[in-house]
Design goal:
Length: about 140
């Protein structure tokens, strides 16, 4: 009987711990840049480092004026150089108003690179950042 009691206590502890982890890892909705939104002159690389980690199923919300857009850069080299030749347009200049453009992180462990290519947004305006989605527990 004593062994069953220990097993029951262990099971309760395991279920409690799993519930706590599940409660802390629910997908979040994150406004890119916080109150600054997606704009020229804000350091988004610094913002992403300060707001990480990001998890699979988190939603990134890009809110911006019609003078910007959102691209997915194909790799680190393109990201560093602000080379949009193989980049994919995620949201045009008209999609950042209102509730903004929502991008759901779905690829586990793979770096995702984001940038705006309007004028000097990427190079001089610091409008680029990357995230590495982690598993949600």
């Amino acid at each position: 009987m004593k062994m069953s009691f220990s097993f029951a206590k262990g099971l309760i502890l395991l279920v409690t711990a799993a519930s706590m982890l599940a409660a802390t890892s629910q997908a979040e909705t994150i406004v890119v840049g916080g109150a600054e939104n997606w704009r020229f002159g804000f350091n988004y690389t610094d913002w992403s480092l300060k707001n990480s980690p990001f998890f699979v199923n988190d939603k990134l919300v890009f809110k911006y004026k019609p003078t910007h857009n959102v691209y997915a850069m194909p790799n680190l080299g393109s990201y560093i150089k602000c080379d949009f030749s193989a980049a994919k347009l995620l949201a045009s200049n008209t999609q950042g108003g209102g509730e903004g453009y929502v991008f759901t992180l779905q690829t586990l462990w793979r770096p995702l690179y984001f940038a705006s290519n309007v004028g000097a947004d990427c190079k001089d305006g610091l409008m680029k950042f990357f995230v590495v989605p982690l598993p949600s527990w």
